[in-house]
Design goal:
By secondary structure, this protein is α/β, with parallel strands linked by helices. It is built from 26 helices and 12 strands.
Length: 514
Amino acid sequence: MAQTEFPKRRAFAMQKPRTKDRDRDEPRRTDRQRAADKRRRAEKQAGNVSQHKGDLTPQSRMISTRGGRVRITSLIVDELTRALEVILKLDGPADVLMKLFFKSNPKLGMRDRGLIAEGIYYALRHYSSMRWAMRPIRPDRAPRLAALVTLARQHGVDTLSEQTIGSEKKPLENVMAALEKQFDSAPAHVRAELPQWLFDLVEAQYTDTDALYPSMLVGAPLDLRVNLLKASRDEVLAQLEASGVEAQPTPYSPDGVRLPTKPGLTQWPIFKNGLVDVQDEGSQLIARLVAPRRREMICDFCAGAGGKTLALGALMRSTGRLYAMDINEKRLAGLAPRMRRAGLSNVHPIVIASEHDKRVSRLNGKFDRVLVDAPCTGTGTFRRNPDLKWRLNPEELARINDVQKSVLASAARLVKKGGRLVYATCSILERENQQVVEAFLAANPDWHLVPARDVLATQKIELDDAQWERFGDYFQMLPHVNNTDGFFAAVLERTPPVVEAPVDEAPAEDEASE
């Protein structure tokens, strides 16, 4: 999607600690005391990930020990109100705004941060029903009521004290009554938690939406990709088990590990030392569809932050040449430290102005394989980015569609004859997927579709037969079928050059007569 320009003003004002949270009489700490604190923190981190095991996971820390009920304080309501007042305007990416929000109040504890973050995501996932129940008031114009409704739906009205609810008691009762007693009569797209235009597209394409819609309203698991240059999956699983972290192998990707909780991964030695990287299982399989070989020349044409680039580099065993191209210089710059951590030396990042950049055309016909992780609407990532469905519109879909076709055409010229191109998106819409590929194949008869099933089978990766029967030669992962984000991919191959067989010379007449 297009980059959003933010205003120069602060999205969130910096918050001062509450008076009751500060001890005005607390003496200043000496340099020796501060040094001792720093040493203790370092020693705690050196204890690896044992601090995350069992009932010490962040999710468990949120939960009250009394009767299993979450205790909602006025602080949580106030801060969630402050966050929703900005985020529900839907002016920019929610993850960026959330970072700004938490940065504006660094005094929030881990429990409060967790509850507020989950509240923000819940409000975005269920924005359609909340707006319907609050009508004619817009949630962003009544952020405190929106915060109370969100927390009541998540944890129950009885977790909110009358003092916390205050003057919003009657409006809260009305909204909750509408959701509990009248929601079955709400429009179908409201019950699906989608805008009308997007609901119509999905309904026209899928017959199992009763399972698809609920799957997009829950959080995604944390998937890790094991860096095969530094460890095997079994070794990583053994390290996690020894540290008391619950984990299991992903069902499809041979390189994946799935964690049911989301602990502070960036502080773990296995992450700092490059043994694992965060990557959804579906994304891992797209790298497998490229099937890069050692010493080949590979291009990740829309590399972004480089998640699939790193996966490709590991499959190449850091040999050959792997070009990572993107128009976003800032995102591509973040690839360098990740490359070092992963131990890759074959990656060459290149910032390009567009798919028509001269630096791209100079490499036409040079690559063995090209991955086009095309710009898309991100409809397959609603579990992680629920704000996308409210910020998208038909005009944006049309614009992205044109970009996809242009990017695919330009990237195809990079592939040598006999080489392959993988066109991929994180979308569940045929308009961005099958229709783009079919239009390309119709205009380029020297290309053909390679069954994705065959490419994965050579690597001993199997999906259910029903999935291939449903999508044919295309690769499609869905949250309600595979418990991954929604991913699409098509493997395309350019017709190899025709090698003419040598023609035997006709025998001389006298030789023929012999």
